[in-house]
Amino acid sequence: MTATDRWLIAGLGNPGPWFAGTRHNAGFAVVEHLAHHAGTRFHLTGPRHRTTEIDLAAHPTLLAKPLWTINQSGPPIAALLRTQRIAATHLVVIQDDLDFPFGTIRLKRGGGPGGHNGIRSVTEAIASRDYLRMRIGVGRPPKGQKLGSFVLGRFSEAEQQQLPDLLTRCAASLETLLTSGLDHAQTTLHTPQPVS
After folding, report:
1. 71 known member of a binding site
2. Is 19 labeled as ligand-binding?
3. Portion of the chain with pLDDT greater than 90, in percent
4. Any domain includes 106
């Protein structure tokens, strides 16, 4: 197993306790969920990120939380790709997405930032759109609320009750992605499941 066979899964978010549980930190929530269920914790690896190693679906995987602001996520992620010798094609970036209702999960490769400055920073820093993205829907703010206060606000009480299931589905989708590839993961994730 060479270093290039490893995966890097980076959750986007803002560091610090004040931002914990906010919509903009959905990416952090997913990688924290993965680490918790693998029985490991994040540790500081330099001034730019916290990381931990897990096996995800039998694949050696580095989980990362960049420690710069979410809008400056690119340089820390680029540094990890470089120092850990991981290809951009083996990078998954997890982000919040205003364009999908809460609870929606979408997978794609590349594409434009769609107004997400964290994604713009990653694309510019690694000079590639070959990486994979998991987009977690957080919905749109109610009328009269600004976007900034909405994404930096915490999930509603009803949404918080649904978060455990959402995080479990995110983890399962990532396992499918690493095991069976993007096409199969998209088909599995995006096809409505029958109600039992």
Report:
1. yes
2. yes
3. 81
4. yes
